[in-house]
Design a protein that fits this description.
The chain is an alpha+beta fold. The protein is built from five helices and eight strands. Helix 3 packs across helix 4.
Length: 171
């Protein structure tokens, strides 16, 4: 059984530090970030540390992680899904964006609330997250084995996450 552990970060610097800490613990491929699209010139940027790899990732992807401001902050592994929800300027990176990537080839009509509800969030919580993300905050979510949940919660707490949610993922 696995958990999706999500936390909302109001400050881009702290979101970046939390993401870097998650990466250092080896959760690189399991991190999703949802935030405002970087093309908004009023949004500030914050770089995050380069990916920590064990040599298992080869070629151009080895250690190639791009730190970017996406509303507050986001990181994207080379080859990871990144989808901008049309009309709302929200960027979804990582596993939560993967489901939308196929739909992006056609006409993506999804909403952020729909993405979050599809991931298992209660609709009320999804609407609350959408409001905060529209305001420039960043949602960081990581999929982990149930026994690693406390580690993620500690990282989120250390870096000031608010509105933390733990969901049990269906296998």
């Amino acid at each position: 059984m696995s958990h999706l552990v999500a936390g909302l970060f109001r400050d881009s610097e702290w979101a970046g530090k939390a993401i870097s800490s998650l990466k250092e613990k080896g959760y690189t491929k399991d991190i999703s970030v949802i935030s405002k699209d970087t093309s908004d010139p009023h949004l500030k940027s914050h770089d995050v540390k380069k990916d920590v790899t064990d040599g298992a990732v080869g070629g151009a992807a080895a250690g190639a992680v791009m730190g970017a401001a996406v509303g507050a902050v986001a990181t994207l592994l080379v080859g990871a899904a990144a989808v901008v929800l049309p009309g709302v300027g929200i960027l979804v990176l990582g596993p939560l964006g993967a489901g939308l990537a196929g739909a992006a080839a056609g006409a993506v009509t999804g909403t952020l609330v729909g993405v979050l509800v599809d991931a298992g969030f209660p609709e009320e919580k999804a609407k609350m997250y959408e409001h905060h993300i529209q305001s420039g905050e960043t949602l960081v979510a990581v999929s982990v084995a149930a026994d690693a949940t406390d580690t993620i919660l500690d990282i989120y707490s250390e870096f000031g996450a608010v509105e933390v949610q733990v969901l049990t993922e269906q296998s």
